[in-house]
Amino acid sequence: MISRRLVALVDCNNFYASCERVFRPHLEGKPIVILSNNDGCIVARSNEAKALGIPMGAPLHLWEEKMRQHHVHVFSSNYALYGDLSRRVMRLLARYSPHQEIYSIDESFLDFTGLPHPVAHAMRLRHEIHKRTGIPVAVGMAATKTLAKLANFCAKKREPWKAIGVCNLNDLEPVALSELLSSIDVGEVWGVGYRSVKSLAALGITTVEQLKTADAKIIRQHFSVVLERTVAELNGTACLEMEEVNPDKQQIISSRSFGRLVMALDELEASIASHVARGVEKLRGQHSMAALLTVFIQTNPFRTQDRQYSPSLTVALVLPSDDVSILQKAANNALRQIYKPEYHYKKAGIILSGILPNTVRQADLFAPPPNESRESLMKVLDQIHRQYGRGAVKTATELLGKSWHMRQELRSPRYTTCWEELLEVKCGY
User: Fold this and answer.
1) 380: helix, coil or strand?
2) pTM for the whole thing?
3) Which value, in Å, is the radius of gyration of the alpha carbons in the chain?
4) Residue 38 domain-assigned?
Protein backbone atom coordinates (compact mmCIF):
# COMPACT_ATOMS: atom_id res chain seq x y z
CA MET A 1 0.00 0.00 0.00
CA ILE A 2 1.39 3.43 -0.99
CA SER A 3 1.29 5.95 1.87
CA ARG A 4 -0.49 9.21 1.27
CA ARG A 5 1.94 12.14 1.01
CA LEU A 6 2.31 14.06 4.27
CA VAL A 7 4.19 17.35 4.45
CA ALA A 8 4.77 19.07 7.79
CA LEU A 9 5.42 22.78 8.24
CA VAL A 10 7.13 23.62 11.53
CA ASP A 11 6.86 27.31 12.36
CA CYS A 12 8.36 29.04 15.39
CA ASN A 13 5.70 31.05 17.23
CA ASN A 14 6.39 34.81 17.14
CA PHE A 15 10.04 33.90 16.65
CA TYR A 16 11.83 37.18 17.43
CA ALA A 17 9.74 37.76 20.55
CA SER A 18 10.24 34.12 21.61
CA CYS A 19 14.02 34.53 21.25
CA GLU A 20 13.94 37.50 23.61
CA ARG A 21 12.02 35.40 26.14
CA VAL A 22 14.50 32.51 26.17
CA PHE A 23 16.85 34.35 28.52
CA ARG A 24 14.11 36.46 30.09
CA PRO A 25 11.42 33.98 31.20
CA HIS A 26 9.74 36.70 33.27
CA LEU A 27 8.55 38.20 29.95
CA GLU A 28 6.28 35.21 29.30
CA GLY A 29 2.77 36.56 28.81
CA LYS A 30 4.02 40.16 28.56
CA PRO A 31 3.68 42.27 25.38
CA ILE A 32 6.88 42.52 23.33
CA VAL A 33 7.76 44.38 20.13
CA ILE A 34 10.93 44.17 18.05
CA LEU A 35 12.23 47.15 16.09
CA SER A 36 13.77 47.36 12.64
CA ASN A 37 17.31 48.39 11.81
CA ASN A 38 18.01 51.75 13.44
CA ASP A 39 15.00 51.32 15.74
CA GLY A 40 12.70 52.96 13.22
CA CYS A 41 9.58 50.81 13.06
CA ILE A 42 7.99 47.67 14.47
CA VAL A 43 8.93 44.43 12.66
CA ALA A 44 7.74 41.77 15.11
CA ARG A 45 5.18 41.48 17.92
CA SER A 46 4.19 38.97 20.54
CA ASN A 47 0.57 37.86 20.70
CA GLU A 48 0.05 40.19 23.64
CA ALA A 49 1.29 43.17 21.61
CA LYS A 50 -0.93 42.17 18.69
CA ALA A 51 -3.92 42.11 21.07
CA LEU A 52 -3.21 45.76 21.94
CA GLY A 53 -3.71 46.66 18.29
CA ILE A 54 -0.06 47.55 17.62
CA PRO A 55 0.37 47.10 13.85
CA MET A 56 3.25 45.55 11.96
CA GLY A 57 5.50 48.09 10.27
CA ALA A 58 4.24 51.02 12.34
CA PRO A 59 6.74 53.82 13.10
CA LEU A 60 7.88 53.56 16.70
CA HIS A 61 7.28 57.21 17.56
CA LEU A 62 3.57 56.96 16.74
CA TRP A 63 3.02 54.17 19.27
CA GLU A 64 5.45 55.04 22.07
CA GLU A 65 2.77 56.53 24.31
CA LYS A 66 0.44 53.54 24.03
CA MET A 67 3.32 51.15 24.63
CA ARG A 68 4.30 53.05 27.76
CA GLN A 69 0.70 52.89 29.00
CA HIS A 70 0.56 49.13 28.54
CA HIS A 71 4.13 48.42 29.69
CA VAL A 72 5.21 46.96 26.35
CA HIS A 73 8.78 45.66 26.34
CA VAL A 74 10.69 47.06 23.36
CA PHE A 75 13.86 45.56 21.85
CA SER A 76 16.16 46.46 18.98
CA SER A 77 16.63 43.66 16.45
CA ASN A 78 19.24 41.18 17.68
CA TYR A 79 19.95 39.20 14.51
CA ALA A 80 23.00 37.46 15.93
CA LEU A 81 20.83 35.90 18.64
CA TYR A 82 17.91 35.15 16.30
CA GLY A 83 20.16 33.57 13.68
CA ASP A 84 21.95 31.35 16.18
CA LEU A 85 18.74 30.13 17.81
CA SER A 86 17.31 29.48 14.35
CA ARG A 87 20.29 27.28 13.47
CA ARG A 88 19.82 25.32 16.69
CA VAL A 89 16.12 24.77 15.96
CA MET A 90 16.79 23.68 12.37
CA ARG A 91 19.49 21.20 13.43
CA LEU A 92 17.06 19.58 15.87
CA LEU A 93 14.28 19.45 13.25
CA ALA A 94 16.59 17.56 10.88
CA ARG A 95 16.48 14.62 13.30
CA TYR A 96 12.73 14.20 12.75
CA SER A 97 12.70 13.64 8.99
CA PRO A 98 15.10 12.39 6.31
CA HIS A 99 13.95 15.28 4.09
CA GLN A 100 14.05 18.88 5.32
CA GLU A 101 13.57 22.18 3.51
CA ILE A 102 14.52 25.26 5.54
CA TYR A 103 12.09 27.82 4.19
CA SER A 104 12.96 30.84 6.33
CA ILE A 105 14.64 31.80 9.60
CA ASP A 106 11.67 30.41 11.55
CA GLU A 107 10.02 27.90 9.18
CA SER A 108 10.97 24.46 7.92
CA PHE A 109 9.17 21.86 5.82
CA LEU A 110 9.62 18.19 6.79
CA ASP A 111 8.50 15.07 4.92
CA PHE A 112 6.43 12.87 7.26
CA THR A 113 5.16 10.50 4.55
CA GLY A 114 4.87 6.96 5.86
CA LEU A 115 5.04 7.79 9.56
CA PRO A 116 2.62 5.54 11.49
CA HIS A 117 1.72 8.16 14.13
CA PRO A 118 2.49 11.62 12.71
CA VAL A 119 0.62 13.63 15.37
CA ALA A 120 2.50 11.91 18.21
CA HIS A 121 5.73 12.41 16.26
CA ALA A 122 4.99 16.12 15.89
CA MET A 123 4.19 16.48 19.59
CA ARG A 124 7.51 14.87 20.52
CA LEU A 125 9.19 17.30 18.13
CA ARG A 126 7.51 20.30 19.79
CA HIS A 127 8.52 19.09 23.23
CA GLU A 128 12.18 18.59 22.33
CA ILE A 129 12.50 21.94 20.50
CA HIS A 130 11.07 23.80 23.48
CA LYS A 131 13.12 21.83 25.99
CA ARG A 132 16.45 22.31 24.17
CA THR A 133 16.03 25.83 22.78
CA GLY A 134 13.16 27.47 24.67
CA ILE A 135 11.40 28.25 21.37
CA PRO A 136 7.70 27.23 21.02
CA VAL A 137 6.68 25.84 17.62
CA ALA A 138 3.49 24.85 15.86
CA VAL A 139 3.23 21.95 13.41
CA GLY A 140 0.82 21.78 10.49
CA MET A 141 0.54 18.67 8.32
CA ALA A 142 -1.22 17.96 5.05
CA ALA A 143 -0.81 16.43 1.58
CA THR A 144 0.74 19.57 0.04
CA LYS A 145 2.86 22.51 1.15
CA THR A 146 -0.01 24.97 0.68
CA LEU A 147 -2.35 22.87 2.80
CA ALA A 148 0.42 22.34 5.38
CA LYS A 149 0.63 26.15 5.72
CA LEU A 150 -3.11 26.25 6.42
CA ALA A 151 -2.76 23.38 8.87
CA ASN A 152 -0.08 25.39 10.68
CA PHE A 153 -2.50 28.32 10.86
CA CYS A 154 -5.04 26.00 12.50
CA ALA A 155 -2.41 24.69 14.93
CA LYS A 156 -1.90 28.27 16.12
CA LYS A 157 -5.38 29.75 15.86
CA ARG A 158 -8.12 27.10 15.86
CA GLU A 159 -9.35 24.65 18.46
CA PRO A 160 -8.98 21.77 19.13
CA TRP A 161 -5.59 21.89 17.43
CA LYS A 162 -4.41 25.08 19.17
CA ALA A 163 -4.46 23.28 22.51
CA ILE A 164 -1.74 20.87 21.37
CA GLY A 165 -0.04 23.02 18.72
CA VAL A 166 -0.42 20.32 16.05
CA CYS A 167 -2.89 19.92 13.18
CA ASN A 168 -3.04 17.16 10.56
CA LEU A 169 -5.51 17.98 7.79
CA ASN A 170 -5.05 14.48 6.32
CA ASP A 171 -6.98 13.16 9.33
CA LEU A 172 -10.14 15.09 8.36
CA GLU A 173 -12.97 13.63 6.34
CA PRO A 174 -13.80 15.57 3.13
CA VAL A 175 -16.94 17.15 4.63
CA ALA A 176 -15.11 18.27 7.78
CA LEU A 177 -12.23 19.65 5.71
CA SER A 178 -14.66 21.58 3.50
CA GLU A 179 -16.36 23.09 6.56
CA LEU A 180 -13.01 24.12 8.01
CA LEU A 181 -11.76 25.74 4.79
CA SER A 182 -15.07 27.57 4.45
CA SER A 183 -14.37 29.28 7.77
CA ILE A 184 -10.90 30.55 6.81
CA ASP A 185 -10.40 33.80 4.88
CA VAL A 186 -8.77 33.39 1.49
CA GLY A 187 -6.03 35.80 2.58
CA GLU A 188 -4.61 33.07 4.83
CA VAL A 189 -3.61 31.02 1.77
CA TRP A 190 0.13 30.93 1.13
CA GLY A 191 0.97 33.36 -1.68
CA VAL A 192 -2.39 35.15 -1.78
CA GLY A 193 -1.53 38.77 -1.04
CA TYR A 194 -3.61 41.87 -0.41
CA ARG A 195 -4.14 42.69 -4.09
CA SER A 196 -5.16 39.13 -4.91
CA VAL A 197 -7.63 39.14 -2.02
CA LYS A 198 -9.34 42.22 -3.48
CA SER A 199 -9.42 40.74 -6.99
CA LEU A 200 -10.76 37.41 -5.72
CA ALA A 201 -13.45 39.18 -3.69
CA ALA A 202 -14.64 40.88 -6.89
CA LEU A 203 -15.23 37.36 -8.24
CA GLY A 204 -17.11 36.32 -5.10
CA ILE A 205 -14.20 34.30 -3.69
CA THR A 206 -13.60 35.19 -0.03
CA THR A 207 -12.87 31.85 1.66
CA VAL A 208 -10.29 29.12 1.14
CA GLU A 209 -13.01 26.63 0.19
CA GLN A 210 -14.35 28.96 -2.50
CA LEU A 211 -10.85 29.29 -3.96
CA LYS A 212 -10.38 25.53 -3.79
CA THR A 213 -13.57 24.88 -5.76
CA ALA A 214 -13.18 27.81 -8.18
CA ASP A 215 -13.35 27.22 -11.94
CA ALA A 216 -9.81 26.67 -13.19
CA LYS A 217 -10.55 28.59 -16.40
CA ILE A 218 -11.62 31.68 -14.44
CA ILE A 219 -8.51 31.52 -12.26
CA ARG A 220 -6.29 31.11 -15.32
CA GLN A 221 -8.04 34.00 -17.07
CA HIS A 222 -7.76 36.52 -14.22
CA PHE A 223 -4.58 35.46 -12.42
CA SER A 224 -1.14 33.98 -12.94
CA VAL A 225 -0.18 30.34 -13.29
CA VAL A 226 1.07 30.56 -9.70
CA LEU A 227 -2.47 30.94 -8.33
CA GLU A 228 -3.64 28.14 -10.60
CA ARG A 229 -1.04 25.89 -8.99
CA THR A 230 -2.18 27.09 -5.57
CA VAL A 231 -5.71 25.93 -6.37
CA ALA A 232 -4.31 22.54 -7.40
CA GLU A 233 -2.40 22.35 -4.10
CA LEU A 234 -5.60 23.14 -2.17
CA ASN A 235 -7.16 20.15 -3.89
CA GLY A 236 -4.35 17.86 -2.77
CA THR A 237 -2.25 17.85 -5.97
CA ALA A 238 1.37 18.62 -5.11
CA CYS A 239 2.87 21.28 -7.38
CA LEU A 240 5.61 22.36 -4.96
CA GLU A 241 8.21 19.72 -4.21
CA MET A 242 10.60 19.58 -1.26
CA GLU A 243 13.77 21.56 -1.95
CA GLU A 244 16.37 20.08 0.37
CA VAL A 245 19.12 22.23 -1.09
CA ASN A 246 18.33 25.89 -1.68
CA PRO A 247 19.37 27.02 -5.17
CA ASP A 248 22.42 29.25 -5.32
CA LYS A 249 21.68 32.95 -5.35
CA GLN A 250 22.30 34.64 -8.68
CA GLN A 251 22.58 38.02 -7.00
CA ILE A 252 23.81 38.88 -3.52
CA ILE A 253 22.88 42.21 -1.95
CA SER A 254 24.18 43.64 1.29
CA SER A 255 23.03 47.09 2.40
CA ARG A 256 21.90 48.93 5.50
CA SER A 257 20.84 52.35 6.64
CA PHE A 258 23.16 54.25 8.96
CA GLY A 259 22.40 55.08 12.57
CA ARG A 260 22.94 58.74 11.66
CA LEU A 261 23.72 60.70 8.52
CA VAL A 262 27.26 60.21 7.23
CA MET A 263 29.41 62.61 5.19
CA ALA A 264 32.99 61.35 5.69
CA LEU A 265 34.52 59.17 2.98
CA ASP A 266 36.37 56.92 5.45
CA GLU A 267 33.12 56.03 7.19
CA LEU A 268 31.50 55.18 3.86
CA GLU A 269 34.55 53.06 3.02
CA ALA A 270 34.18 51.17 6.29
CA SER A 271 30.52 50.52 5.59
CA ILE A 272 31.14 49.35 2.03
CA ALA A 273 34.02 47.12 3.18
CA SER A 274 31.74 45.52 5.76
CA HIS A 275 29.08 44.86 3.12
CA VAL A 276 31.65 43.34 0.77
CA ALA A 277 32.87 41.04 3.56
CA ARG A 278 29.28 39.93 4.24
CA GLY A 279 28.64 39.40 0.53
CA VAL A 280 31.83 37.36 0.13
CA GLU A 281 30.84 35.22 3.10
CA LYS A 282 27.57 34.36 1.34
CA LEU A 283 29.37 33.95 -1.97
CA ARG A 284 31.87 31.46 -0.59
CA GLY A 285 29.16 29.74 1.38
CA GLN A 286 27.57 28.65 -1.88
CA HIS A 287 30.97 27.98 -3.54
CA SER A 288 30.59 30.77 -6.07
CA MET A 289 32.46 33.73 -7.55
CA ALA A 290 31.24 37.11 -8.75
CA ALA A 291 32.14 38.76 -12.04
CA LEU A 292 30.32 42.06 -11.37
CA LEU A 293 30.31 44.36 -8.36
CA THR A 294 27.91 47.28 -7.89
CA VAL A 295 28.44 49.94 -5.22
CA PHE A 296 25.67 52.37 -4.27
CA ILE A 297 25.22 55.18 -1.76
CA GLN A 298 22.16 57.33 -1.20
CA THR A 299 20.88 60.28 0.75
CA ASN A 300 17.65 60.28 2.75
CA PRO A 301 14.72 60.90 0.36
CA PHE A 302 12.47 61.78 3.30
CA ARG A 303 14.64 64.76 4.28
CA THR A 304 13.23 67.12 1.71
CA GLN A 305 15.35 69.94 3.11
CA ASP A 306 18.51 68.13 1.95
CA ARG A 307 19.92 67.88 -1.56
CA GLN A 308 19.36 64.39 -2.94
CA TYR A 309 22.01 62.16 -4.50
CA SER A 310 21.78 58.40 -5.10
CA PRO A 311 24.57 57.22 -7.42
CA SER A 312 25.74 53.70 -8.19
CA LEU A 313 28.60 52.21 -10.19
CA THR A 314 29.01 48.67 -11.55
CA VAL A 315 32.52 47.30 -11.99
CA ALA A 316 33.41 44.32 -14.18
CA LEU A 317 36.24 42.36 -12.56
CA VAL A 318 39.14 41.18 -14.70
CA LEU A 319 38.36 37.66 -13.52
CA PRO A 320 35.45 36.39 -11.38
CA SER A 321 36.55 36.37 -7.74
CA ASP A 322 35.60 35.27 -4.24
CA ASP A 323 38.57 37.00 -2.59
CA VAL A 324 37.49 39.61 -0.06
CA SER A 325 40.57 41.81 -0.59
CA ILE A 326 40.12 41.92 -4.38
CA LEU A 327 36.45 42.77 -4.09
CA GLN A 328 37.00 45.35 -1.33
CA LYS A 329 39.66 47.08 -3.43
CA ALA A 330 37.32 47.19 -6.43
CA ALA A 331 34.49 48.46 -4.24
CA ASN A 332 36.66 51.16 -2.72
CA ASN A 333 37.72 52.39 -6.17
CA ALA A 334 34.09 52.50 -7.28
CA LEU A 335 33.04 54.37 -4.15
CA ARG A 336 35.72 57.02 -4.66
CA GLN A 337 34.37 57.65 -8.16
CA ILE A 338 30.79 58.30 -7.07
CA TYR A 339 31.40 59.94 -3.68
CA LYS A 340 30.71 63.67 -3.30
CA PRO A 341 31.61 65.27 0.05
CA GLU A 342 28.78 67.82 0.13
CA TYR A 343 25.98 65.30 0.71
CA HIS A 344 24.54 63.67 3.84
CA TYR A 345 24.33 59.91 3.19
CA LYS A 346 21.75 57.65 4.83
CA LYS A 347 22.48 54.29 3.23
CA ALA A 348 25.20 52.33 1.43
CA GLY A 349 25.51 48.86 0.00
CA ILE A 350 26.86 46.49 -2.62
CA ILE A 351 25.49 44.02 -5.14
CA LEU A 352 27.44 40.97 -6.32
CA SER A 353 26.23 39.59 -9.66
CA GLY A 354 27.48 37.65 -12.64
CA ILE A 355 27.74 34.75 -10.20
CA LEU A 356 29.45 31.54 -11.33
CA PRO A 357 30.46 28.27 -9.61
CA ASN A 358 33.98 28.50 -8.23
CA THR A 359 34.86 25.39 -10.20
CA VAL A 360 34.64 27.45 -13.42
CA ARG A 361 37.90 29.38 -13.28
CA GLN A 362 38.85 30.67 -16.70
CA ALA A 363 42.54 31.40 -17.22
CA ASP A 364 43.62 34.77 -18.55
CA LEU A 365 46.84 35.23 -20.50
CA PHE A 366 47.44 38.69 -19.07
CA ALA A 367 46.23 38.12 -15.53
CA PRO A 368 48.58 37.07 -12.73
CA PRO A 369 48.51 33.39 -11.79
CA PRO A 370 46.26 32.31 -8.91
CA ASN A 371 47.68 33.14 -5.50
CA GLU A 372 47.59 29.91 -3.50
CA SER A 373 48.46 31.68 -0.26
CA ARG A 374 45.49 34.04 -0.70
CA GLU A 375 43.15 31.10 -1.19
CA SER A 376 44.57 29.42 1.91
CA LEU A 377 43.98 32.63 3.86
CA MET A 378 40.37 32.83 2.65
CA LYS A 379 39.77 29.23 3.76
CA VAL A 380 41.13 30.09 7.21
CA LEU A 381 38.78 33.09 7.38
CA ASP A 382 35.87 30.84 6.37
CA GLN A 383 36.73 28.47 9.22
CA ILE A 384 37.00 31.29 11.75
CA HIS A 385 33.61 32.69 10.73
CA ARG A 386 31.99 29.27 10.95
CA GLN A 387 33.46 28.61 14.38
CA TYR A 388 33.28 32.04 16.02
CA GLY A 389 30.59 33.83 14.04
CA ARG A 390 30.46 36.67 11.55
CA GLY A 391 32.70 39.60 12.38
CA ALA A 392 35.19 37.63 14.47
CA VAL A 393 37.90 38.82 12.07
CA LYS A 394 37.66 42.07 10.10
CA THR A 395 39.74 43.79 7.49
CA ALA A 396 41.36 47.09 8.48
CA THR A 397 39.02 49.12 6.26
CA GLU A 398 35.97 47.84 8.15
CA LEU A 399 37.29 49.45 11.35
CA LEU A 400 37.37 53.01 10.00
CA GLY A 401 34.86 54.92 12.08
CA LYS A 402 31.79 53.77 13.94
CA SER A 403 29.02 56.27 13.15
CA TRP A 404 27.87 54.32 10.10
CA HIS A 405 26.75 51.42 12.27
CA MET A 406 23.06 50.82 13.00
CA ARG A 407 21.41 52.45 15.95
CA GLN A 408 20.51 49.59 18.31
CA GLU A 409 19.90 51.34 21.57
CA LEU A 410 17.56 48.65 22.92
CA ARG A 411 19.37 45.50 21.78
CA SER A 412 19.50 42.60 24.20
CA PRO A 413 22.80 40.78 24.77
CA ARG A 414 24.03 38.32 22.13
CA TYR A 415 23.89 35.55 24.71
CA THR A 416 24.95 32.65 22.48
CA THR A 417 27.49 34.19 20.09
CA CYS A 418 29.51 36.78 22.05
CA TRP A 419 31.78 35.87 24.98
CA GLU A 420 31.50 39.36 26.46
CA GLU A 421 27.71 39.11 26.55
CA LEU A 422 27.25 35.66 28.10
CA LEU A 423 24.50 35.41 30.68
CA GLU A 424 25.84 35.79 34.22
CA VAL A 425 24.22 33.82 37.01
CA LYS A 426 24.89 34.77 40.64
CA CYS A 427 24.57 32.01 43.18
CA GLY A 428 24.07 32.76 46.84
CA TYR A 429 25.36 30.55 49.62
Assistant:
1) helix
2) 0.71
3) 25
4) yes
